[in-house]
Specification:
The complex is a heterodimer of chains A (268) and B (225). With 268 residues, chain A is α/β, with parallel strands linked by helices. Chain A contains nine helices and ten strands. Chain B contains eight helices and no strands. The chains are: A alpha/beta (268), B mainly alpha (225).
Chain lengths: 268, 225
């Protein structure tokens, strides 16, 4: 195993979101949404677009603020507030934001690799500049991570020389390089050509098998079915239902889930 | 021919002063411009944003030659007496900082927002994100316009002759006043300006091409240890 996951030192969930509410102006995007994620768990968020999945995982590393509710990650309280009183969004303090971002990695739909750096340099950037690890050691580690993602021969290529699938695997390596306790995946295969989706999902499957805590927003139902410990169905910023993949896919209790699955599985 | 040769020493000295004036003013303009651009990225920080905006509007809204006069002729009334060269660098630098700051601000904003998000998500604090991720990309975007301003500044530095800085144009004026050969002297002065500005503009174009990201190729692989 290249990364290390602290074996459950405490019993409380690694990620706790409680009664999270957020709206853009009059448009509510998250409504009283709660979710706990344990160490080593793989949670897949599904639901129609606009249901708040992406917004929710973005709140987990402070890319979005929340209006009210409580978020705590690996013991750090990122947000904790009473229901909105002065119309002021709850802003996390600088130190806990930094701590949470070091703890939680994120992989984006558009990869967001740094275009002026090679694959290896992308992966080394934060270890060298944030953790102050010597260049040589950081490069060695970066090569290991890239090798694990099947990219050993692409380490010195620039992002524009790589396919989308390769870029996304570099992005996964980049977030692994900071030894996160959890990684958030935001529709990471949606921008890929269909034939490149498989290689990225394979990498994620490997990560899940190694015990990484993952929250995954995706439309890949096959992945959800096979890899998720828990599937969470969202609609209109609310949690509709949650359960094992068998429960959700075979016998959804809420008609919205059934309807959504129907539309995804049989698009016509 | 012999006449031209007799002009050369003082014109070359003048050219030296012009280059110094340009380089010092440019460095001043770059540094202050970058600070102003950074301040103006965040309009909510009003105590910095408003003064920076006023500075930029006042400087862009008044003639450069007036700013030179102000620095050299008006400041002594406030008890600040500057050497002509220093006054020139200050006025030119301040003037260009206002224009350059707008170039930098728009270049920084042209870097996709995802770059900020990705860099913060791996724990980089603001200063590091700016220095390591945003500025290298914004710099490439800013280069063509900045290069343009650099060459414009080189020529605008001739205005410093009005506050008695003996740069290239003023050196020419002195020679012309003595010999009355206006045509010959100003033609040579023009050639001197071109001899610097044209190669500079070629050099900038080459630099731009060199830095283009799409031309970057994987380096020959180092042998893995």
């Amino acid at each position: 195993m290249v990364f290390t996951v602290d074996e459950a030192t405490n019993k409380s969930p690694l990620i706790q979101a409680k009664n999270v509410t957020k709206s853009y102006g009059d448009l509510p995007v998250l409504h009283d949404f709660s979710l706990d994620v344990d160490r080593g768990e793989v949670v897949v968020l599904i639901g129609p677009s606009g249901s708040g999945k992406t917004t929710f995982i973005r709140t987990l590393n402070g890319l979005e603020t929340i209006d009210s509710g409580r978020i705590s990650i690996n013991g750090t309280v990122l947000a904790d507030s009473k229901p909105l009183d002065k119309g002021k969004p709850h802003k996390p303090n600088h130190r806990s934001l930094q701590k949470v971002r070091l703890d939680v990695g994120m992989v984006f739909q558009q990869f967001n690799l740094f275009p002026h750096l090679t694959a290896a340099e992308n992966v080394m950037e934060a270890p060298v500049w944030v953790r102050k690890i010597p260049q040589k050691d950081a490069r060695k580690r970066a090569l290991e991570l890239l090798d694990r993602m099947g990219l050993a021969d692409r380490a010195d290529h620039y992002p524009h020389e790589l396919s989308g699938g390769q870029q996304q695997r570099v992005a996964i390596s980049r977030s692994l390089a900071m030894d996160p306790v959890a990684i958030l995946f935001d529709e990471v295969t949606s921008a890929l050509d269909p034939e490149l989706v498989g290689e990225v999902l394979r990498a994620m499957r490997q990560l899940a098998a190694d015990g990484m805590t993952m929250i995954v927003v995706t439309h890949e139902m096959q992945f959800a079915r096979q890899v998720a410990d828990r599937v969470v169905m969202m609609a209109s910023g609310r949690l509709v239902e949650a359960g094992t993949p068998e429960q959700i896919f075979a016998s959804p209790t809420d008609p919205r889930t059934a309807k959504f699955l129907q539309s995804v599985v049989h698009p016509q | 021919m012999g006449e031209i040769a007799s002009w050369l020493p003082s014109l070359l000295t003048g050219l030296g002063v012009t280059v110094e004036l340009t380089v010092f003013s440019m460095v001043f303009g770059l540094v202050v411009g970058l600070v102003l651009a950074t301040i103006r990225l965040e309009p909510r920080n009003r105590w910095l944003y408003i003064p920076a905006t006023i500075y930029i509007e006042v400087i862009r809204g008044t003639p450069l030659i007036l700013q030179l006069f102000f620095a050299y002729f008006a400041l002594p009334a406030a008890g600040i007496r500057l050497d002509p060269f220093i006054a020139g660098v200050l006025a030119l630098g301040i003037n260009y900082s206002a224009y350059l700051s707008e170039v930098f601000r728009s270049s920084i904003k042209a870097v996709p927002h995802g770059q900020w998000e990705a860099a913060s998500s791996i724990g980089m604090p603001w200063v590091l994100v700016m220095w390591r991720i945003i500025l290298p990309q914004a710099g490439r975007i800013a280069l063509p316009a900045t290069g343009n301003y650099f060459i414009a500044l080189f020529k605008d530095s001739a205005l410093a002759s009005t506050i008695s800085v003996t740069e290239l144009l003023f050196s020419g004026q002195i020679l012309a006043a003595a010999s009355f050969n206006y045509f010959g002297i100003y033609a040579v002065v023009a050639v001197f300006y071109l001899a610097v500005s044209y190669p500079s503009s070629l050099g900038l174009r080459a630099l731009e091409r060199r830095l283009e990201l799409s031309r970057r190729k994987a380096r020959p692989k180092r042998v893995a240890a």
